[in-house]
Q: What sequence folds into this?
């Protein structure tokens, strides 16, 4: 009588250790909902351009008065987009005199990038 | 006669060398349009969950037949979301027998993450 021994190659199942939450295991509904809201705030050409202008400005801060001309949109439209970016955590807002100033809040951007990094 | 020499502190204008396109300089309209389309494909809870299930599967590949139950959506809805992810470059599709298989195309995800990494 022959006894068959099943040999499992455990190294094959160890796989690569991976850091990105999206790749490590299936994300849950709550996490997917939260990430989708954040990505939606970014997923607009005007908002990406505004965020990029602020992020590349000196001190990563810009006056709303300097953001209107470069994107070629009306002041209310620019203000709406800046509000969406601020509510999503990508910018912080402070008022000095007549104007509002927007500063990059880099943690939000880093958070999204880390989530997607494989 | 006194000659005034203007001394420019060049170190002040050198700034930090930075890698993220979004932070290095204001992105242009064409680049913003392209990135927004890619981010829109990601910015949906069902698509994030589907992408995450595929990405965390063995070989980063999954049969469409194994993707329907976990997200609790109809087969046509799941197929639509998979099509959006495939067209955006996040997944590749191959047909084997009756079923379609989806595999993670990691470059697209890395591309978005690199763009946003500060």
A:
């Amino acid at each position: 009588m022959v006894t068959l021994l099943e040999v499992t190659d455990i190294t094959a199942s160890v796989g690569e250790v991976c850091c990105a939450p999206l790749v490590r295991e299936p994300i849950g509904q709550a996490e997917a909902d939260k990430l989708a809201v954040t990505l939606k705030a970014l997923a607009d050409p005007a908002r990406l351009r505004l965020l990029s202008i602020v992020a590349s400005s000196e001190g990563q801060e810009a006056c709303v008065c300097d953001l209107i001309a470069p994107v070629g949109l009306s002041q209310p439209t620019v203000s709406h987009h800046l509000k969406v970016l601020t509510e999503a955590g990508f910018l912080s807002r402070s008022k000095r005199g007549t104007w509002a100033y927007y500063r990059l809040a880099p943690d939000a951007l880093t958070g999204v990038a880390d989530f997607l990094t494989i």
